[in-house]
C-alpha cells in the first residue's frame, strides 16, 4: 500500500512539473515599449483587452489590443 502511494505521488509530481511549463512572451506596444509576460497573454474578444502576468512585477495587468503591435514567444 505504501509503495503504491509513493508511486502515485511521484507520477503526480512529475505531471505537474512537466505540464506547468509555459513560455514567456514579448509584447511589443505601438509606442515602442516591450513587456515581458509570464506565460501566454489571454485576449478577450468582447472587451478588446489583453490580460497578462507581468514577468517583472508578478502582477496581472491588461492592455488594449489596439496598443499591441506584436506578441512573440521568447526562448526560455
Task: Note down, in words, how this protein is organized.
By secondary structure, the protein is an alpha+beta fold. Helix content is 24%, strand content 37%. It contains 1 helix and 6 strands; from the N terminus they run αββββββ. The strands form 2 sheets. Strands 2-1-6 form a 3-stranded antiparallel beta sheet, with no helix packed on it. It starts with a helix and ends with a strand. Residues 3-20 have low confidence and may be disordered.
Order of strands across the widest beta sheet? 2-1-6
User: If helices are DSSP runs of H or I spanning 4 or more residues, what is the number of helices?
Assistant: 1
**What's the total number of strands?**
6
**Average pLDDT reading:** 80
Per the principal axes of the C-alpha atoms, what is the gross shape?
globular
Order of helices and strands: HEEEEEE
User: What is the beta-strand fraction?
Assistant: 35-45%
Please give the radius of gyration in angstroms: 18 Å
How helix-rich are the residues, as a percent range? 10-25%
Amino acid at each position: 500500500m505504501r509503495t503504491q502511494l509513493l508511486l502515485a505521488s511521484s507520477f503526480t509530481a512529475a505531471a505537474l512539473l512537466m505540464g506547468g511549463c509555459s513560455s514567456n512572451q514579448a509584447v511589443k506596444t505601438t509606442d515602442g515599449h516591450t513587456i515581458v509576460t509570464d506565460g501566454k497573454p489571454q485576449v478577450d474578444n468582447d472587451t478588446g483587452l489583453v490580460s497578462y502576468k507581468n514577468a517583472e512585477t508578478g502582477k496581472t495587468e491588461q492592455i488594449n489590443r489596439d496598443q499591441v503591435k506584436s506578441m512573440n514567444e521568447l526562448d526560455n
